[in-house]
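re the bet — no i am not wrong, look at it urself. input seq straight from the record:
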Amino acid sequence: MPTKIVTYRCQEEQEEQLSHSMALSSQIKKKKFKSSDEEASLCEFYPIISGDVMSVKEILTEPKFPRHRTWEVLRETMADDELHQRDKWTLFGNEAEKVEIEVIRNQHEVRKRVDRMKLRREAQRKASAHLKFLEDLSMKAPDFPIPLRPHTVWEGMAVKLSCTIQGCPTPHVTWFKDDVPLRVSSQPWNYKLLQKFGLNTLEIRRCSAADAGEYKVVAKSSLGEATTFATLVVNSYQGAETGLKCTRTAVSVVESEALFDSTFPPSFVKEGDTLVLCCSFSSPLLPFQQDVSWFRDGVPLSSSGRVDVRTALTSTTLTLKGVHKEHEGLYSVRLLGRDGIKEHSAFIYIKDGPAAVVGAPGSPLEVECSDVNRDYVFLSWKPPSADGAAQVQGYFIERSELGSLQWIRCNDVPQKLCYYPVMGLKENVMYQFRVCAVNQAGMGRPSKPTHPIFTSDPMEPSRTMVVKVDAGREIVIAKDQLESQIRVPFPPTDVHVCELTDSYAVISWTEPDPRGKETLTYFVERSIAGKESWHLASMDMMVRSTRFAAFDLQKGKAYCFRIRSINKYGISDPSEPSQPIALGELLGVPAAPHSVQAIPDTERSVLLLWKEPKDTEGILGYYLYCSEMGTSDWRTINNKPVSGTRFTVHGLRTNKEYVFRVKSVGRAGNSRYSEQSQPIRVKAAKVVPSAPSGVSLLCCSGSEMVIGWRAPTSHGGVPVQCYYLDQREKSQSVWKEVNVKPVRERVYTVSGLQQGHYYQFRVFASNVIGISKPSGPSEAFLCEQWTMPEPGCPYDLQLREVRRESLVLMWAEPLYRGQSQLTGYVVEISEGEESEDWTAVTQEPITDTHLKISRLQAGQTYRLRVSAVNSAGVGRPSLPTEPVAAQTRPGTKDIEIGVDNDGFIFLSFEAPETEDEGQIKWSKNYTEAIDAGRAHLETKQNKSVLTFSAASEEDLGLYTAEMMDRPDISSSFSFTAEDLERLMELSWQIRNPLIGLRSEGWQVDVSEQGAVRLWLQTEPLSSAAELRMILNDKEISSTPARKISFDRPNGLVEIVFDQLSKEDEGSYTAQLKDGRAKNQFTLVLVDEKFKQTLAKSQAKRRDWKRRAGPHFEEFLSWTVTEDCEMIMKCKVTNVSKDTKLKWFKDGMEITQAVFEPSGVSTFTVPQVTKKEAGVYRAVVSDSRGEDESVLELLDTEFDKLMQRLSKQCALSAGPLGIQCTATGFKLYCSLKYYLSYTKTSWYFKEKRIDQEERTKPGSSMQKVWIEIFNPTENDKGKYTLEMFDGQETHKRTLDLSGQAFAEALLEYQRLKQVAIAEKNRAKVTKGLPDVVAIMEGKSLCLTCFAEGDPMPEMFWLKNDREISSTGQYHIAHDKNSSTITINSVTMEDSGNYSFFVRNTYGSQTAYVTVSVYKHGEKPRADAIQM
C-alpha cells in the first residue's frame, strides 16, 4: 500500500513539472546581443526581478536571505503542504541556478564573438577609408608616356599601332580613324584591339589602301582628356605625321555656403487646413549643410503621417496637414553654416475652424490622458479662447475605439471643469478621446483626438520576473503562478481619495498582496462618517481598476469608503475604511491680468505686455484679444495659451489704432477680460536716428573749414532736429566738441584752426528720442587756404523719385567756385555697392542742379557722384551717394494730371499710407515755390491736389511733390504745351457739348482683294450735319481712287482706297458739326502704322493673286507619332503635273522629303536630337507662280516639340521589370526612345529615392533603371517610377514583395556567391616571363605570386610533373609567393615549367620555358636572359 501511494505521488509530481515546463517554454523570448561599446542594460546579463515578486534566490535555502511575506501567508493557510512545496521549489531553484550560470557563461562567450565581429568591421572600414585616401592621392590626369608612331607599309602587310596610357582613375580609351570612331566589329577578321597593363595595341592583319589615314587614340577621365595621333601610309609617298595633345580639368574653387534667401513670415492658418512653410537658399546647399532642422517652440519636427519635411538643394519645405490649435507656436528653421547655426523664426497662428452651429464656442485643446487603468482613465484639457455667442456652460467627453468611426458620449451632464474621470471602459482596448465645448447656442467643434491609449493593468509588469536561459531566450514567470494556491482573495489596503472636486471624488486603493492567480474585481461600499451604515456605491458597475469616481455625493456631508475584492472563489472581507471624505469647494476661475500695455514694434506688429494677477495658482496661460478703434469687433489673437507676460502681435494694419485685452486660462475656465490697453497706432517703434555719413571738406580758408555730411539713412520714425560735430587733430586720439548749440543744416563752418595741421571730424544726429551714434571719422583734412583754379566738390546729394528704370539726383553747388564761374556739372554713375568704375551719364556738362537718370536696369544697385566744371576744368568729385537699388517702392503712385468736373486743370499726388501723418510739399522745377495767385492747394489725408485757376503757358514746367521728412516718397510731372493743349481741349469739351463717338475712333479694315477702308461711327446725326475731311492740313474730297461717304442717320464716315499708295500717308481729320455740337476725329496714318496697313494690303492682294497658282493649303507643321518619330507635314493645292515642291533646312535642301500626288508632303525624323533644331522652308512652284511655307523649329517651338516627344516616350514605357545582379537588384523600364528632357524619379513606398550609397539610377537610349545594392528585407515593397514630360507625370509601379521578392533575393544571393567565388578563386597575380635563358652552371631563381581566399596551395611542375624540394631543386613558400631555385643548371634542366595554384574556389597555372645554353653560345632571341 505505501508503495502505491509513493508511485502515485511521483506520477503527480512528474505531470505537474511537465505541464509547468511547457507553460514556461511558451513564454521564451528571443534576445539580440550587442557589442561592448553599445548600450546594454544590466538585465541583458543577469536576470533582474521585481522586489515584490518571489525570485529564484528566495526559493534557495540561504539562512540570511530575507523571506518574502508570501511564504508567511502560505504557511498559515497551507501548513499541511509546506514540506512538499518547499522540496519542489528547492529542486526548481537548484535547476534554475544551474541554468542561470550556464546562461551567464554563454552570454560572455557571445559578447566576445560580437566584439570580435565589431572590431573586424571597424578594421575593414578604416582599411577601405585608407585605400580611398591613397586612391585620391594618386589621382592623375590621362597621359601618353609612349604616344603612337607613324608607319609606312606596303599593301598586304601587317602593322601594329601601339601606345601606353597612364592615369588614375583608369581612363576610357577610344580609337578613331580619320575622326570617326573605329568599330572592330565591322571587320573582325582584319582588326584586333588589345588593352593590357596600360598598353593599347591596334593590329591590322592585311593592310589595304582603305586602311591608310590618321589614327587617333583619345583617353578620357573625370580629370581631363589626352589625345595622341599618327599617320598610317599604305604604299604611299605621303609623309608621316605624329603629335600629342593633352587637356586637363581645372581645379574647382571653394563653393560659397548657402544662406537664407526668401523666408516665411508670420502666418495665419485656419484649423483643419494645410500649413506649408518654405525657405529658399541663396545657393545650393553644401554637403555639410544638407541637414536642415525644423522646430516648433524649440521642439524638433520630423517627417511623420501628418508632418512632411522635405529639403532640396535650393529650398526646404515643412508641410503640416490638418492643423489643430495645438500646432500654434513659434516655428523655426536652422541651417548650419561655417560660422555657426543660422536660424529664422516666425509665429504661426491657428484660427478657429468654421463652427458646426452658429454662435457655438471654439474647440478645446491639449486633451491629455493620465492614470490609465484597466477600465479607468483621467482626462484634462484647456478651455477654448472663443466662447461664441454666450459663455461656455461645460464640456462633453467622447470616446472611440481605435479603428472605429463611432464616437460615444461619456457624460450625460456637461462637465464644468476641464478634467474628468472616465469609467466603464473595456480592458485591453485602444481608445481615443475628444472634448466638445457647449453654450446656449449649441455644441462646438470637437478637439483634436488624443493619442491612442491602451487600457491595461498598470501593476502587471511588477507581477512578472524574467530568467535568462541559453541561446538568447527568456523564461517569464508570473507571480500569479506562484500564488495559484490562493482561493478566496484578501481585502485591499490603503483606501484614500486621489482626486477631489465640488462634484465628485475619486477613490484609490492598493490591490491585496498576495493577490492570487484569478482575476480580481471590486465592490465599493459607502457610509456616512460616524455611522456603520454601509451601502453599495458601485451599484451594478463592475469595477476592475483600483480607482472609482463617486458622483452622487451630497455637499456638507462626510463619507467613508471601503473596498471588497472579488474573484471566482468568493468575496473578501472589507478593507479598512478610508478617512472621512467631503466634497471640496467650488474651483473658481482665475483672476484677470492687469496693466495691459502695447508698445510699437514694426509696421505690422506691436509688443503686448501685461502683469499677472496676484494669485497665479492654477493659471495655465493667457488668451489675447484686439480690436481696431472705431469698431466693436474683437478678434482673438492666439488660440493656444501663452505662458509668459509678453507677446508680439502680428497681422495688424499699418497706421491703424488698436486696443488690447487679456484673459487668464484655468481648469475652471477663462477669467473675465482685463481692462483695455491705451489705443496705439501701429507703426515702427521710434528710435534714435542712424549715424550720419559722408563727412567731407567743402571749403578751407586757412583758419576755417566748411564741413558737410550726409543725412542719416533712417531718422528713427521722428524727424532729425539737429547735428553736433566733434574734431581732433590727426596726431591726437581725444575728440573735442565743435558746436555747443545744435546745427540744423548739414553744413557747418569750423573756425579757430591752425594752418598746416591735419584735422578729422565726426557728426552726431539728434531727434526727440536721443542722439545717434557718431559717424565714422572723416579722412584727415589739411588746413590750408584753397587757391586751386578748379571748383570744389558739390554737396548735399539727394535722391528723389527712385523707380525701376529711373531716378532723380539733386545737389547743391560747391561753396568754392575756383577762379572762374561755373559752367556746368558732370554726373557719373557706378554699378554695384563698391565698384569704382565710374561712367559719365551725359556726354556734355549740365547746367541745372538736378538730373533725371533713365535707362537703369531694374533691381541693379547704383551709386552716383557729381563734379563741378569751370573754365579751368573739372573739379574734385563729391562723395558718392549711398547705394540705391533701381526698384519702385510698393504702393508708389505718380503725379496725375486731369480736368475736374468744373473744367479746371489740376495735378494730383497720392502718397502711400505711412506710419506718421506728413505734409506734402509742391515745388516747380525742384526749387521754385508755387505761386498762390495762379494755383491753390488742397490736401486731404494722404492725397494732395494742385488746381490751376486759369492754366496757361506761364504754368508750364516741371512740378514735384514730396512728403516732408520722407523725401523717398516723391514724384514729378512735366507739364508741357502738348498737355496744356490736350487738357484745354478736354476742358472745353466739358464746358461745351461734343458729338459722341460710338466706334473706338477711326478703324482701318483691309478686304480680301487688298482694298483699304477707313471708317468711324458717331451717334446719329441730323440731315443738316456737315463733314469736312482734312488730310495733312488740306481739305479733300471724294475721287475714283479715294471714295468718301457720309451716312448721317447712322453717323458713319467712310474712306475707301482701291489701292493704297505712298501719297495716301498722313493725318486724316473728320470735322463734324451738327448745330452747336461739334467734334473732330483724327487718324494719324503715318510711319509704322501706315507701313503696316500698306504691307497688309499688299500681302492680301498678293495672296489673292497667289491663289491663282499652286499654293499651300496647309502650312508646315509637325506631329509626334506613337513610335516617337517626328513627322513634318504640309499640303499644297491647285497643283499641275509641272508643279515641284522642295524642302530646305537652314538653306540646305532636304532630299528625304516625300511628295504624294494628293498634295501632301512629309518629312520623317526617326530620332530627334538637337541637330533637328533650325528653320525649315518648303517651296512649291510651277509656271503659274510660286509659294512658300516657313517653320522656325527654334527656342520655344523646339522646346514644345521636345515636351511632346517626352510625353510620347513616357507613354511608350513598358511595365517595370527586375534583373538580379551580383551586387543587388536592378529595376528597369524599357521605352521606345528615352530623352534626357524627360525627368525621372524613383519612389519606394511613396517616398522619393535620392541617390545614396545603396542606390544608383541610370538610363540609356531605350531604358531607365535604378540599382539597389545589397538588398535586405527592408527593400521589400512597392517601387514607383515617375516620368515628368514637362506638363504631366507618368507612373509605372512594381510590387516587389511576397514570392517575387523571395525569388529575386534568392537569385541575387546566388549571383553574389558566384561573384565571391570568382573573387576568392586562386589566381596568379605576378606571373612568369614566357621564355627564360640561363647559362649552364648558373643558378636559376623563379618567383611567382598568388592570391585567393582561402590562401591557395602552390605547386611547381616541370613538363606537367610536380617538382619536390630535393637535390638541386629548392622550393620556398611565403605567405603569398613561391620561389623555386635550381642550383647549377644543366642542359637537362631545359623544358617547360609551370606554377600551379588552387583553393576551394578554383585554380590557375602560369607557364615559363627555361632554355639552358652553353658558355660561348647565344641565348634565344625571344628569351629573357637571367
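see?? The CA atoms of residues 55 and 1157 lie 103 Å apart. told u. also The chain has nine helices and 100 strands. so pay up
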